[in-house]
Amino acid sequence: MSYADEIFIKNCREILDHGTWDTDLPVRPHWEDDGAPAHTIKTFGIVNRYDLSKEFPILTIRRTFWKSAVDEMLWIWQKKSNNIHDLSSHVWDQWADENGSIGKAYGYQLGVKHHYPEGDMDQVDRVIYDLKNNPSSRRIMTNIYNHADLSEMALYPCAYSMTFNVTGNKLNAILNQRSQDMLAANNWNVVQYAVLTHMMARVAGLEVGELVHVIADAHIYDRHVPIVEQILNNPQYPAPKFTVDPEVNDFYAFTKNSFSLENYQYTELDVKIPIAV
Predict the structure, then answer these.
(1) What is the distance between the alpha carbons of residues 126 and 117, in angstroms, rounded to a whole number?
(2) DSSP 233
(3) 249-264 as b/e, with b when 16 or more CB fall inside 10 Å?
(4) Taking a C-beta distance cutoff of 8 angstroms, is the pair 106, 82 a contact?
């Protein structure tokens, strides 16, 4: 079985068997189809570790549309865009205004330039600079949860911070997430930031190490529970082989087609996932 399957099953069983419901509380999310409150069962403080040098952390008990996930990651980290017209998928359509903007969120924050002794750089270019020039630094990180701009964001960032750390010749990373919809977004985010870690390692001439995923509020929506229970009983397959185009070592030259998965086996979902917004 894929190690990502093992972790996902463990997390979901912990939430379903020992989690806390918020049905007695007022909640912001609501169901897109009928506007009813979207309540959750949750666990606080989940920490997962994925050794990227051993296998790629993608689920096989359900399909992860990993190319679309990578496309969104590149939209945020490479294009540094906040406009859905620069994005191939439609995952952000519900949050965009009439011009396609999601406000000062996600890619916008990564693209803001800051002044450093070495010159003006945005957060992404600062990470790349330090990985190449200051690999022993313990300050290689990004943070897009900018309180000064929250009122101008269509959605507060969920995955908000990445910390990169070089140990020996390996690049490790920590993804901090304030909130995680386990069914709709968990493996989507894991795949995105696993690919990002591979990209940064390639750019810096390093090997990949661990991706550590820290989730503050890991939850399953009420109408998602039967679907999650079904997924947890699906067949499990070995993790596919992940490869990166050996010709690309410039962060801004990667495309979603720079990555491939060999022998990705999975079970398709036979139900439509209700959307909480």
Answers:
(1) 11
(2) T
(3) eebeebebebbebeeb
(4) yes
pLDDT tens for residues 1-23? 899 999 999 999 999 999 999 99
Question: Is residue 48 classed exposed, middle or buried when 0-12, 13-18 and 19+ CB atoms within 10 A define those classes?
Answer: buried
Rg, Å, the chain Cα set: 19
Q: Are 142 and 162 in contact (CB under 8 A)?
A: yes
**Whole-Å CA distances, 144 to 9, 41, 159, 216:** 30, 27, 9, 16
Give Cβ neighbours of residue 182 (< 8 Å, ≥ 6 apart): 8, 11, 12, 15, 218, 219, 220, 224, 228
Q: Tell me, yes or no, if 158 is annotated catalytic.
A: yes
**Would you state the structure tokens that stand for residue 138, as one six-digit string?**
């313990």
Q: Which helix (H) or strand (E) holds 200?
A: helix 186-204
Name the amino acid, one letter, at 56.
Answer: F
pLDDT at site 1: 80
CA 165/CA 125 separation, integer angstroms: 16
DSSP-derived 3-state class of residue 222: helix
Q: 16, 121, 154, 158: which is the annotated catalytic residue?
A: 158
Mark the ranges of the chain whose per-residue pLDDT is less than 70.
none
CA torsion through residues 34, 37, 39, 44, sign: positive
